[in-house]
Every structure is written in C-alpha cells, then in structure tokens.
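Quarterly update, task 2.4: 4'-deoxy-4'-aminopyridoxal-5'-phosphate-bound model.
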Amino acid sequence: MSRKLNFSAGPAALPEEVLKQAQEEMLDWHGHGLSIMEMSHRSKEYVSVAEQAEQDLRDLMHVPDNYKVLFLQGGATSQFSMIPMNLLRGKKTADYINTGVWSIKAIKEAQRYCDVNIVATTEHNNFTSAPTQNQLKLDASAAYVHYTPNETIGGVEFDYIPDTGSVPLVADMSSSILSRAIDVSRFGLIYAGAQKNIGPAGLTVVIVRDDLIGQTLAGTPTMFDYAVHAASDSMNNTPPTFGWYLAGLIFQWLKRQGGVEGMEVINRRKAEKLYQAIDQSSFYANPVAIANRSWMNVPFTLADANLDNLFIEESEQAGLLNLKGHRSVGGMRASIYNAVPEAAVDALIEFMQYFESKHG
Ligand code: PMP
C-alpha cells in the first residue's frame, strides 16, 4: 500500500494514524462484537463516544460553558439558512462581510429571510484581501454580523477577529476551524462542515452561545432549530454517528499533536514555506495580500497557463493529488489542512521547483 499526498480542499486528507485506528476498530469496536456504525446512537457505548468527542473539542478550543456544541447534518450550507432562522430573533437586518464565493453563498441564503447589509466587500480587488476593522460599516442594530474567516476558494484569511461590539459575531470556519487558537468568547456562533479539519463529510459542527438560541423565526422546521438540538444533545434524531466517532478520534489525535496551539505552530510553518517558495520564483504567483494569505488553502498560478494540465499530470505521477484549482478560478490550489504533514508540503515545494526547472 502506498498512500499519496493529498492536497484536496475537501473532503480532505485525514491523519493516517486515525484511519488505521478506525480500521482496527471497524469490525469489533472495543470488544463489543460490532462496529460503531452498527450501534444504536442511544446505547451507552455510543453516547460515551459522543460525549467524549464533545469534551475533547471543548478542551481543544477552550469553549466556555455558556456555549452549546452541536453535531449536526446538512453541511455548512444548511447553516447559511439556520443562522438567519435562529439568530434574527425578531430583528429585520443582518450584517454580512463579503470576501468571496462562500460569503456570497451565505449572503444569498440570508436574503431569503432578512435585509442583508453588506458591511464591507473586497469585490473591487477580485477578493484578494480581507477588509480591515476600520472598513467595516457595522450597524449596531443588526441581529448579527456574519463573515468567512477563511475563504476556501480564494485562499483569503482574516488576520484578526472583527470587533462587533455587542452584536453577535457569526463565523463560517469550515476551512479554518482547529487550525489556530481562537478566543471562542469573541463569537456568537461558529460553524464548520467537518470534511476539512474535523473528519469525514456528513457532519457539521456548530458552537453557539446559549442565550442566542430558542427564538426561531415562525415556521422554522424542527430540524433547523438549534434549541431542539441543544436540548437533545444533538440526538433529536439519528445523528451522523460514524462522522461523530471519527471526529472524536481526530480530536484525540489533535491533542497528541499539542492541541490547536501545537497545530498552529506547524500550520504557520507549512504556510510560510509554501508562500516563500511561490514568492521566490517568478514562475509561480499568488495574488492575495500578504496579511490575508490563508494558512489552509494556497492558490497559485503558473506563469504560463498552458502548462496547467502538464503540472497536474506530472504532480499526480509524483504522488501529489488534487492540486487543481477550483473550477471557478483555475490555476492550482494546495489545501494544507491539519492532517497534511509538513513533509507533504516539503515534497510539494520540491516538485514545484523541479517542474519550474524543467518547463519554466
Ligand atoms: N463554507 C466554506 C468556507 C466552505 O469551504 C465550504 C465547502 N467547501 C462550505 C461552506 C460548504 O460546505 P458544505 O459542503 O459542508 O455544505
């Protein structure tokens, strides 16, 4: 067996150690004679797995006690609707920061429920930066402020947490959760699809301050009500049991890597060396403002776009997978989430230098 180096944007690489553990536990989970997938979500064995995963995530992110941690389905995309349904709380407007593709999707969905006030946009520079705090035209009467700390496609990451005063801050952390230490108390709600830094697709994590829930828009479906999920410990119906279990294994793996603080050091180093390799070459380029370059998703172009297909072909032959950029932007993108080892980034840089020397 030879596993390749996977730079997929999501579903993304998982730690090999965790996959092996899941494999070992697959047929007979802890001597119970069945797999975790075949167990009732209400069994005491499964409930203990679920509770441990939640506790480990709380530990990793230092989640304060007045926050609920929910393990849901529907992807981050369902949160684009659940957020206005739950957080408008009788208000008519919400503030949104627009930094690219994922912000726009969130904005479009919110517009079905309220007046969306775009408090800053970087459309003028083709979404290659994040607005500064001073550029945010916040409305103190907005129900909440939504932003995308890391735009997965554009590779644009905020280098600060917006200060929104007493208005709850909502963050789509799909592609940046657990990548660096953050102060959860600065947020009203954090959400993330699991398939990048948490685990397999099919699980969505929501961390929400408990005073913000329980005041849903009239007509909100039961499954879209955070209060329902909070009251049932995310077991109002059958939760995504396997994804939740695997996320738990990842959380334990993260703890073994020194937690989020440990990952942050490694992630910074991985990103810095890749951007440095791009900047030092006149063959590769990244358009994002230096301060806003993503640690997780590194898009880059080749000096000659006619070489794109050859780059993909040769990189695959070298065992480097999924480097093709998103179809909307072209070029290349290396996603270097927590589970992508530093050695994979080193191998990518080496391949890029080899490719440039051959074709540049
Ligand atoms: N937000 C961001 C920042 C994302 O990167 C993605 C997925 N690429 C989504 C939302 C959508 O996530 P899902 O597919 O889980 O709905």
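Highlight for this quarter: The chain is about 35% helix and 15% strand.
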